[in-house]
Amino acid sequence: MMPLQTKGMTLAFETADFQQLRPLLDNKTVDCVTLVDSYLKRIRQHQRLNAFISVFDDRARQAAAAIDLKIKTGDAGKLAGLVIAIKDLICIKNERTTCGSKILSNFIPPYDAFVIKRLLAEDAILIGKTNMDEFGMGSSTENSHFGAALNPHDMARVPGGSSGGSAVAVADGQCTASLGTDTGGSIRQPASFCGVVGLKPTYGRVSRFGLVAYASSLDQIGPITRSVPDAAMLLQVIAGHDRRDSTSASLPVPDYSSGMKNGVSGLKVGVPREYISESVQLEVSAAIERTIDSLRQGGASIEQTSLPHSKYAIATYYIIATAEASSNLARYDGTRFGYRAGDADDLESMYVKTRSQGFGEEVKRRIMLGTYVLSAGYYDAYYRKAQKVRTLIKQDFDRAFEKFDVLIAPTAPTTAFGLGEKLDDPLTMYLSDIFTVSINLAGVPAISIPVGYDSNKLPIGAQVIAKAYNEATLFHVGYFLEQESSAKMSDSN
Ligand code: GLN
Question: Cβ(362) to ligand 1 under 6 A?
């Protein structure tokens, strides 16, 4: 551990969450410039983890100095001094936004995403853009044009994906928090693999304006943090209506901190039987069992339930997501922005060469799959059918939430797998999303909370799922579980 030298005390900035840092910043025990410098140093020292695609040394230092002044004069925002990393498919004005792809490797957006505007308005400090699977397509961050990111718990393993860089940066103490995006599990699964908190908000809770689209009916931006209160605080800032995203809800944003620490007494918890299959790593099932026990001991009632259409989720997701991706990615043709092949003779060959050279293997596979399921003659058999099944999956959740406040399940069937282990077998890779994709298809929110370790000391995540717009309940349960696991960990020390 590398302590940060502050006036009269030392602070482990790599493990502190914002709730611990904020009072120290406020009473000037530590200043933002020192904090930013410590993170920048750590990013450089741990470059091998490859968490970042771009690092904003100058920008972050300048922002820190300006915010230190604001803290002195007492007019700093809610997130003053929160050092945050941003997945590289969320636009920041005048900063390169690559989406982990060669095709956008030189793309500099002329505007800020809605979430970035919100963060800046509250004085968060942007420290850089994080590594990711190209356009969000993957579960290991190995599909990045900029090389794989590595799991800080074991560098021979993947950090999960697609927001792998965002999870690594938080788990390794290279920033205080990060933003990721989740289309089929890309916030929750890397959070689970790296031992941090990851929230996928309800579809419509956070504006997608300025988020480069992968599958527009599923994509959602959310926080990755070292604690549940930090996740709640970040959602508080980034949630809300935006007239530039017509799917963003105009519902009011509740105060997420209220009731968070009330405990789980009286809470009704459902355990979907489809999520406790034999394919789940034994140590993962055992950790979920222990989590369920601690909820029971906390006064929650636990009952098994069923989401009968779960077995169709992966197939349905990979039809809908690829169909939407094939349409969203049509715009990258070398004409208006991004990479353009230099060796083309005419317009047609410019398109073909640009796309052949600019996209990676997995992205091309998805574009082909998506084009196929949308093509005349196959549309009804695949795309339309998948939309119908999506409705059935959503109805499973509607039914479950008539009875339960939350559902609990593993976030992923295993802990972090080895680098290269699933690269040659896309289907096995797709199966690592088996417990996360249904949640995106249903549009409901879910959070991954670290609840233990396997025998290789790799983190295990539990997933808590709630009804649409009930993120407050997720924070409430998440906070309880977080307290329980930290109490257990200090017992075992
Ligand atoms: N792994 C899933 C996919 O490849 C989910 C990715 C995501 O949520 N962006 O599509």
Answer: no
Residue 236, both tokens: 């508080």
R_g over Cα of the chain: 22
Inform me whether the pLDDT recorded for 251 exceeds 60.
yes
- To test the ligand 1 pocket, which listed residue (162, 224, 326, 434) has its Cβ within 8 A of the most ligand atoms? 162
- Domain-located, residue 208: yes
The closest-lying atom of ligand 1 relative to the alpha carbon of residue 161 is: 1
Q: Please give the span between the terminal C-alpha atoms of the chain, in angstroms, as a whole number.
A: 17
Q: Flag whether 243 is in a domain.
A: no
pTM recorded for the entire structure: 0.97
Q: Work out the pLDDT band at 485, boundaries 50, 70, 90.
A: confident
172 lines ligand 1 (CB under 6 A): no
User: Do 220 and 107 belong together in one domain?
Assistant: yes
Supply the CATH number for residue 136's domain.
Answer: 3.90.1300.10
Expressed as residue numbers, the domain containing 279 is 268-307+392-492
Q: Which atom of ligand 1 is nearest to the CA of 321?
A: 10
Give yes or no for residue 1 having a pLDDT over 70: no
Q: Looking at the domain assignment, is residue 459 inside a domain?
A: yes
**Does residue 471 line the site of ligand 1, with CB under 6 A?**
no
- Distance between CA atoms of 202 and 186, rounded to whole angstroms? 14
Average per-residue pLDDT in the chain?
A: 95
* Whether the predicted pLDDT of 487 surpasses 80: no
Distance CA 483, CA 227 (A): 10
User: Model confidence over 258-286: pLDDT tens digits?
Assistant: 989 999 999 999 999 999 877 899 999 99
If DSSP codes are grouped into helix, strand and coil, which group holds residue 446?
A: strand
CA distances (Å), origin 459, targets 26, 197, 242, 339, 402: 33, 11, 36, 38, 32
Q: Could you identify the residue written with the tokens 């308005």?
A: 121
CB of residue 119 inside a 6 A radius of ligand 1: no
> What is the C-alpha separation between 281 and 276, in angstroms, rounded?
10
* Residue 334 and residue 288 in one domain: no
Specify the length of the chain in residues: 493
